[in-house]
Amino acid sequence: VIIGIDASNISVGGGITHLQNLLRFSKPERYGIRKVIVWGGKNSLEKFPQETWLDLREISVLSRSLVHRLYWQNITLTSLARKNCDLLFVPGGLYLGIFRPYATMCQNLLPFANEEIARYG
After folding, report:
1. How many structural domains compose the chain?
2. Does residue 50 contact residue 20 with C-beta atoms inside 8 Å?
3. Are the C-beta atoms of residues 101 and 88 closer than 8 Å to each other?
4. What would the pLDDT profile of 36-69 be if each residue is shown by its tens digit?
5. Which residue in 32, 80, 96, 101 is a FRET match for 68, CA 20 to 30 A apart?
6. Total H helices, total E strands in the chain
7. In this structure, are residues 72 and 61 in contact, taking their beta carbons and an 8 Å threshold?
8. Which 3 state secondary structure label does DSSP give 101?
C-alpha cells in the first residue's frame, strides 16, 4: 500500500505540527504500508522527518496565486494520486478532486460546538 498526503494547504500552526508528529512517530511497515508520499510546499516539507519510506515532493506552484493552488489541488493532485498511491489523505480537511479512495480530517471542531455557534451566530 502507498499512501499519498496532500500537505498543500497546511504550512504553519497546529496542522503542520500534527502532520509532522504523525510522520515522526509512524511505523508504516507494521500495517503493510510500503511508502508515504507527501506533496507540499518547500517550507512545509523541510519540517518533516527524513525516513526511507517517506517520499517528500515539493510542489513549486503552491507558492503562486490561489488560482494556481486550486488548479493543482483539484486537477493535478488527482492525476498524481492516480499514478502514485492507493489512498489519498487530506489533513487540511477539503478535497474536491475525483480520486478515490481518500480520507480527510477536520482539525478545527470549534465551529461545531453549540456554545460557539450561539456565541458567534
Report:
1. 1
2. no
3. yes
4. 999 999 999 999 999 999 999 999 998 899 899 8
5. 101
6. 5, 5
7. yes
8. coil
Coil, strand, or helix at residue 107?
coil
Q: Which residues of the chain have pLDDT under 50?
A: none
Using the structure block, give the residue that is written with the C-alpha cell 507540499: 40
For 40, list phi and psi in degrees, rounded to 5. -170, 180
Per the CB < 8 A criterion, the answer to whether 112 and 32 are in contact is no
Which residue has cell 488548479? 71
What confidence score (pLDDT) does residue 6 get? 97
User: Which range marks the domain in which residue 25 is found?
Assistant: 2-120
Q: What are phi and psi of 51, to 5 degrees?
A: -135, 155
State the amino acid at position 82 in one-letter form: R
Measure the CA–CA gap between 50 and 62, rounded to whole angstroms.
Answer: 21
pTM for the structure as a whole: 0.87
